[in-house]
Design a protein that fits this description.
Blueprint (H helix, E strand, L loop, with lengths): L6 E7 L5 E8 H7 L7 E5 L4 H4 L5 E5 L1 H4 L9 H12 L12 H33 L8 H12 L8 H33 L2 H7 L6 H10 L9 H8 L3 E3 L8 E4 L5 H5 L6
Pfam families: DEDD_Tnp_IS110, Transposase_20
GO biological process, one term: DNA transposition
Organism: Neomesorhizobium albiziae
C-alpha cells in the first residue's frame, strides 16, 4: 500500500504473482477495507504516519523508501509505487524497519520538539543581534553578549535604541525567555527518559555519550538484536565511509551520514 495524506493506493497479488487488487482508497475507507480482507502480508514504506497504518490487523512490514525505489518500473505515480512496494516486500533479502512502540514514539516527539525549540532560539538570537546592529550596538559572540543586548533593550533610558524598535525587540526577548524555559523542561524530560531504561543507563556510561544520545538511541532502535553486529548498527546510522569500489580497487570516501543523522549528530552530554 502506498500511503499519503488523503489518497491511498493498494496493489495486491496472489501467491502465483497474479494481480488481484489494484484499487484507490480515500483515507476514511482504508480502515474499512483491510478488516474485510483475509490475513495477508502488507508492505509499507517507512515514512511519516507509517507506524500508525501498521495497525491494519495484518502482517504489516515497513521498508526504507530507498530500498523500494529500484522496484519502480518506469514513471512515478501512486499505482507504480504501490506495485513496487508489493514487489519489494516479497523479496527474501529485503531489510525491514523495526516497529516502534508508543513509548518510543513519544520520546522521539520529545527530541524533535526540543530540536525545533533550539532552532527557534537561534533564530530569535540572530534576529535580536541583527536589529541591534542596525542601531550600532554589537555584542560579543555567546550568551553573555546576547545578555548585554537584552539589558540595553530593557533599559528605557538608553537613547541609542528608538522607542518603537525597543517595543518590537522586547517582544522577541519575551519569546526568547519563554523558549529558554521550554528547552530546560525538555532537557529535564530527556534526562528522565535516558535514566528510565537499563539500556539508556548503560549507554551513558560510555565516554562521550550523554542523556540526549542515550535517549535518542533507545527510542530509535526498538530491538538492538536486529543488528548482527555493532558495525551493522554503525552502518544504519551512517557512520561508515562512502564506497565507490569496483573489482580489486577499493575507493573509500568520507562518512556518508545516510542513516539517522539525528542520532549521529549528538555525542556530548547536556550542559
Amino acid at each position: 500500500m502506498d500511503i499519503a495524506k488523503s489518497v491511498f493506493q493498494v496493489h495486491g497479488v496472489a501467491a502465483t504473482g497474479d494481480v488481484v487488487i489494484r484499487q484507490r482508497l480515500s483515507r476514511g475507507k482504508v480502515l474499512q477495507f483491510f478488516p474485510k480482507m483475509p490475513a495477508c502480508l502488507v508492505g509499507l514504506e517507512a515514512c511519516g504516519a507509517a507506524h500508525y497504518w501498521r495497525r491494519l490487523g495484518h502482517d504489516a512490514r515497513l521498508m526504507p523508501p530507498s530500498y523500494v525505489k529500484p522496484c519502480v518500473k518506469r514513471q512515478k505515480n501512486d499505482a507504480a509505487d504501490a506495485e513496487a512496494i508489493c514487489e519489494a516486500v516479497t523479496r527474501p533479502t529485503m531489510r525491514f524497519v523495526e516497529i516502534k512502540s508508543d513509548e518510543q514514539h513519544s520520546i522521539m516527539v520529545l527530541h524533535r520538539v526540543r530540536l525545533t525549540l533550539m532552532r527557534q532560539r537561534i533564530q530569535l538570537s540572530n534576529t535580536i543581534r541583527g536589529h541591534m546592529a542596525e542601531c550600532g550596538l554589537v555584542a560579543p559572540v555567546g550568551r553573555n553578549g546576547l545578555a548585554q543586548l537584552i539589558t540595553i533593550i530593557g533599559n528605557c533610558d538608553d537613547a541609542r535604541v528608538p522607542d518603537l524598535a525597543r517595543d518590537c525587540l522586547a517582544m522577541l526577548v519575551s519569546q526568547l525567555e519563554m523558549i529558554n524555559e521550554q528547552i530546560l523542561e525538555t532537557d529535564r524530560r530527556v534526562r528522565t527518559s535516558a535514566r528510565a531504561t537499563e539500556v539508556g543507563r548503560r549507554l551513558m556510561e560510555v565516554p562521550g555519550v550523554g542523556p540526549v544520545l542515550a535517549s535518542a538511541m533507545v527510542a530509535a532502535v526498538p530491538d538492538p538484536r536486529s543488528f548482527k553486529s555493532s558495525r551493522n548498527l554503525a552502518a544504519w546510522i551512517g557512520l561508515v565511509p562512502r564506497q565507490n569500489s569496483s573489482g580489486d580497487k577499493e575507493r573509500l570516501g568520507g562518512i556518508t551520514k545516510q542513516g539517522d543523522r539525528y542520532n549521529c549528530s549528538w555525542s556530548a552530554p547536556l550542559p
